[in-house]
Design goal:
The complex is a heterodimer of chains A (166) and B (550). Chain A is mainly α and 166 residues long. Chain A contains seven helices and three strands; from the N terminus they run αααααβαββα. Chain A starts with a helix and ends in a 5-residue tail after the last helix. Chain B folds into four domains: 49 residues; 276 residues, no CATH class; 114 residues, no CATH class; 58 residues, Orthogonal Bundle (Arc Repressor Mutant, subunit A). The chains are: A mainly alpha (166), B alpha+beta (550). Chain A: Its EC number is 6.3.5.-.
């Protein structure tokens, strides 16, 4: 299954399944785009350009770059990208199924009742344990850089990661 | 006499500036077209684009008033030690799952009902992805596709018209109300070039209210938010304190010519009070009009409001247009709420269901209803009822006073609106900080009713009472010797004296010129240093000047 091959080739910071999920999502959106009226402009934007290009089985470098920024995954090599394309083609098999008149399923839990909790305090006293997990803390606060550090440009990234173990 | 008139005028001007925010003082109508001159701004208005008007839409995040968070059992409390109210789920440790808090669902449904929304029987949860240190999971659970309530309307009012005494009613459409998680708090430490993260707030339940861009200026937006605040407080679903971050408002502002498509909008953040909201919006509208007039283009950006300078400045950290990659939350089934008990599935546990009918029946009295009741019960004017409900604690104050005095409501209103509220506004105090309690004011009003002190004397007493905490009206009257003289003999004697020493005037009165009586009255008052009971004196003077003498 391509899902597991992907784990080997992509350094995804431990969220490899998410890559499959989001690419599946993109193709599902594409399907939705064709069959149902556009509901959310921003969400479908990325799939729209994908729509026009994926038929050629080429994913434009800009889109790859954008995906890498949004998901903080790294497709790194040509093999990585080929893997992505194969994953999309794999998911495209969904189009073979006739789903006219069928409500899309967005959760396998859809026939379960959502459990409602009583509004009582039952947890939350874990400051010590949680702070221990962080490398850097200052007086019971977690420490983070002053703002989001912008992702380096594609060329710089390639150079930086050339020697990494993954 | 001239100084009296001047004083009156000054008093009226003072009242005007007390009751209105400064930059709206000179406006008659809510209009931010470039034609209006604004005393605080120095933009020169050109006649070319005089029809540009502002368009304002609000995005409001209201923190749900609950004991625990939206998806975890951590406590919700203001000002707790950092990271002391964080569970493993809130810190986004792997292996933790969200568990929905029923109270939050009920709060959202209640708010939706109060705002005339359609409640979606089935609503869905989604993930909104973006990276920021105060969002440990890298996504926020929200309800983007199908929120719990949609298509509502918020009716709000403000005092407009020529004298700002007319209640102007407006509506704004509510697009949707959705449940979502709050993020943690970031404290920026510029000295050490780092950000300190406190996750106490991460995961607290929020209701996001999205309003359509139906408003056109800061005044309308401020009035709408004030009304929403009152509604949420009446419902108990949110405490609505903007300075504590329980109610956060972001404004989307653009300008255009009426009839033309909407212009590019900017988002204004960092607004911590209703007053700043109005100022920020008005500033931004003027700024955009200025840009357009200079032939420039407005950029779609996020700007922060700086209360010190009164300006909006671009925020550094926002990157272009975000793509949040919305996806369904895989760990939560759809949220179902039931219309009434009849539609409940058999054998279901009552703690596991939310029934809309039950919540509807339990809705408390909303501010608009309260205002109506006040008008009905006391016969006061709608604009007074509006102010009573609008000012925190004022209605309760008024009703307390009414309980303790026989005075007519309309007259009591005069005292509450002018003397009390006037002083409070001047010193930027809240009703709860008033040095004069309702009981004390009621006592003063009773003394005036019974003729112990004249109305102008009563006003003086009020001022003295204000400055000296705790003194009763009676005490002040005695100390300042402001009590009205009603002793008939004394009055008779003084009247006689005045009548005897002014034969010309008496003659004029006998000849039909009744106005001269006022002059005599003035003289009597001077004798008694203004403490004559005017009604009695007038009677006596009339008697004495009627043909035939004493």
């Amino acid at each position: 299954m391509s899902a597991f091959r992907l784990t080997g080739l992509c350094s995804c910071r431990g969220v490899s399944l998410k890559v499959i999920e989001s690419s599946c999502n993109l193709s599902r959106n594409r399907r939705g785009c064709l069959q149902r009226p556009l509901l959310n402009g921003t969400r479908l934007f990325s799939s729209h350009s994908l729509n026009s290009k994926v038929n050629l089985n080429i994913i434009p470098a800009d889109l790859v770059d954008k995906l890498e920024r949004l998901a903080l995954v790294d497709f790194r090599t040509k093999e990585g990208l080929a893997c992505l394309e194969k994953a999309i083609r794999f998911a495209d098999q969904l189009h073979l199924v006739d789903t006219s008149g069928v409500e899309p399923m967005d959760s396998v839990l859809e026939d379960r009742a959502l459990y409602l909790r009583n509004d009582t305090e039952t947890e939350g006293d874990s400051a010590e344990e949680l702070l221990k997990l962080a490398k850097n803390t200052v007086e019971e606060y977690f420490v983070a850089p002053p703002g989001n550090i912008p992702l380096p440009k594609r060329e710089e990234r390639t150079a930086m990661l050339k020697h990494s173990e993954f | 006499m001239a100084s009296c008139v001047a004083n009156e005028l000054l008093h009226k001007i003072k009242q005007l500036s007390i009751l209105l925010p400064i930059n709206v003082c000179l406006r008659r109508r809510c209009s931010t077209s470039s034609k209006q001159r604004d005393s605080q701004r120095h933009l020169t208005t050109k006649s070319s684009s005089e029809k540009l008007v502002g368009v304002v839409g609000l995005e409001i995040h209201a923190q749900i008033s609950s004991n625990s968070k939206l998806f975890s059992g951590s406590p919700v409390c203001f000002s707790a030690p950092p990271n002391s109210q964080v569970s493993f789920f809130d810190a986004s440790l792997p292996g933790t799952l969200p568990v929905l808090n029923r109270r939050c669902v009920e709060a959202a449904v209640m708010t939706g009902l109060a705002l005339n929304c359609t409640i979606n029987k089935k609503s869905l949860f989604d993930r909104k992805h973006y990276f920021y240190a105060d969002l440990p999971a890298g996504y926020q659970i929200t309800q983007q596709r199908r929120p719990v309530a949609v298509d509502g309307v918020l009716t709000y009012s403000f005092l407009g018209g020529k004298k700002r005494s007319q209640v102007v009613r407006k509506h704004v459409q509510i697009k949707q109300i959705q449940l979502e998680q709050d993020s943690g708090k970031s404290l920026h430490d510029d000295v050490h070039s780092q950000t300190l993260i406190d996750l106490n707030r991460a995961g607290v339940g929020l209701m996001e209210l999205v309003m359509e861009p139906d408003m056109s200026c800061g005044e309308e937006a401020a009035a709408a938010v004030r009304e929403l605040q009152l509604i949420l407080q009446a419902l108990g679903t949110c405490q609505g304190n903007m300075s504590e971050g329980q109610l956060r408002v972001d404004a989307n502002v653009s300008v255009h010519r009426p009839g033309e498509p909407l212009g590019v909008r900017t988002e204004v953040k960092n607004i911590n009070s209703i007053r700043y909201l109005a100022r920020a919006i008005d500033y931004e509208i003027q700024r955009q009009i200025g840009v357009m007039q200079r032939g420039g283009t407005v950029h779609n950006e996020t700007r922060a409001y700086d209360s010190k300078s009164g300006e909006t400045i671009p925020m550094r950290d926002k990157e272009g247009l975000q793509d949040y990659r919305f996806m369904p939350e895989p760990n939560l089934p759809p949220l179902i709420v039931f219309e009434d008990n009849a539609t409940l599935p058999p054998g279901v546990d009552s703690s596991q269901v939310v029934v809309v009918q039950k919540i509807k029946e339990g809705l408390p009295e909303l501010p608009s209803v309260k205002r109506e009741h006040l008008v009905q019960a006391y016969g006061i004017l709608p604009e007074h009822s509006f102010t009573l409900v609008n000012e925190e604690g004022l209605m309760e104050y008024f009703e307390e006073v009414m309980k303790a005095t026989r005075k007519e409501p309309r007259k009591v209103i005069g005292w509450v609106m002018n003397e009390l509220l006037g002083q409070l506004k001047q010193q930027d105090m809240s009703v709860s900080q008033s040095p004069i309690s309702p009981a004390a004011l009621a006592e003063l009003l009773e003394l005036q009713e019974t003729g112990r002190v004249s109305s102008s004397g009563a006003k003086q007493v009020f001022q003295v009472m204000w400055g000296s905490s705790g003194k009763t009206a009676e005490q002040v009257i005695q100390e300042q010797d402001l009590g009205l003289v009603s002793d008939a003999t004394q009055l008779h004697n003084i009247c006689q004296k005045v009548v005897d020493s002014h034969p010309t005037e008496v003659h004029a009165i006998r000849n039909g010129n009744a106005k001269v009586l006022n002059k005599l009255m003035g003289l009597v008052q001077r004798e008694l240093r203004g403490k004559a009971d005017p009604v009695l004196v007038m009677e006596i003077l009339k008697q004495k000047t009627r043909g035939g003498g004493c």
